[in-house]
Amino acid sequence: MNDRHEHWNDVYGAREETALTWFEAIPTVSLELIRKFADANDPILDVGGGASRIVDSLIDLGFSRISILDLSEAGMNVSRCRLGSRADKVTWITEDVTKWVPDQPCRLWHDRAVFHFLTSKDDCRAYVSRMLSALEPSGIAIIMTFAEDGPEMCSGLPVMRYSPEDLVATLEEIAPGALKTVDMRKHVHMTPKGNEQRFQVSVLRKAGQ
Ligand SMILES: C[S@@+](CC[C@H](N)C(=O)[O-])C[C@H]1O[C@@H](n2cnc3c(N)ncnc32)[C@H](O)[C@@H]1O
Fold first, then answer.
1. What are the backbone dihedrals phi and psi of residue 171, each rounded to the nearest 5 degrees, phi first?
2. What is the pTM of this model?
3. For a substitution probing ligand 1, which of 3, 5, 58, 114 has the most ligand atoms within 8 Å of its CB?
4. How high is the pLDDT of residue 193?
5. Mean pLDDT of 75-82
6. 208: CA distance to ligand 1 center in Å?
7. Whose CB among 9, 99, 150, 177 lies 3.0–4.6 Å from 146's, allowing a Cys bridge?
C-alpha cells in the first residue's frame, strides 16, 4: 500500500471522529446541495467520504443508491460501525480516487475536502478524468475545497487553496468545455476546537443530455 493510504489510516486511528478538524455533526451545506440537485433514487458518490456523517443523513432522507469511496478503510470503518446494520445499504469502495476505474455511473459526485490534497497537475488531471467517466451526462459535481484564504495545511499535508473562480478555471484547463458552473459559494466551517476554516463550494454540471 502507498504512503497516502497509510497516512490516512494513521490519521483515523489516532483520533476520535468527533475530534477531527473537518468533523461536522450535520453536513448542512452538502445536504442542502445534494437535495437540490439529486432525487432519492439517484446514484450518489461521496468521494473521500471517510468517517463523514453525511451517509447517515442521506440514508435518513431515503437516498437508496449511496456509494462512499475512500482510500482509508479505517475512516470508512468508523462510519460502518456507527451505522451498524444500516451500513449494508451503502456501497463501500476502498480506492484512491486518482487511480480508481469507475464501473457504475453516478448522478451526483460529492467531494468535501479531497481535491485540495492533490497538489500535482497529474493527480488533478487523473481526478478530473475519473470524475468525468463516473458522472452520467448532465450529472452534477459538488466540489468543496479550502478557499484562497483557507488553511495551508490539513492533517500534516500541504493543500491547494482555491477561490470558486480558481477551481472552475483549473477544471476548465484540464477538461475544456466538459463542465458548466451551476453554483459557487463560500462557506466557513468551525472546527471542533472553534477555529474557522474557509471553504469554497462549486457546483458543476457535466456537459451532455
Ligand atoms: C479532510 S478528510 C474529509 C472527509 C470527508 N469528506 C468529510 O467531509 O468529513 C479527507 C478524506 O479524503 C480521503 N482521501 C484523501 N486522499 C484521497 C484519495 N486520493 N482518494 C480517495 N480518498 C482520499 C481521506 O482518507 C479522508 O477520508
1. -65, -40
2. 0.98
3. 114
4. 96
5. 98
6. 28
7. 150
CATH of the domain at 76: 3.40.50.150
**Residue 49 pLDDT > 70, yes or no?**
yes
Q: Tell me the CA–centroid distance for residue 40 and ligand 1, in Å.
A: 24
- Count other Cβ atoms within 10 Å, centred on residue 42: 18
Measured distance CA(95)–CA(72) in Å, rounded: 8
Mean pLDDT of the chain: 97
Q: Count of domains in the chain?
A: 1
CA-based torsion, 126, 112, 153, 94: positive or negative: negative
What residue type is assigned to position 29 of the chain?
A: V
From the CA of 49, how far away is ligand 1's center (Å)?
A: 6
Q: Checking DSSP bridges between strand 157-158 and strand 66-70, what pairing results, if any? A: unpaired
| Predicted local confidence at residue 180, as pLDDT | 98
**Across residues 34-51, what is the average pLDDT?**
98
Atom of ligand 1 nearest to the CA of 123: 19
Residue span of the structural domain in which 102 resides: 3-206
User: With bands split at pLDDT 50, 70 and 90, how would you rate the model's confidence at 56?
Assistant: very high
pLDDT band at 208 (very low <50, low <70, confident <90, very high): confident
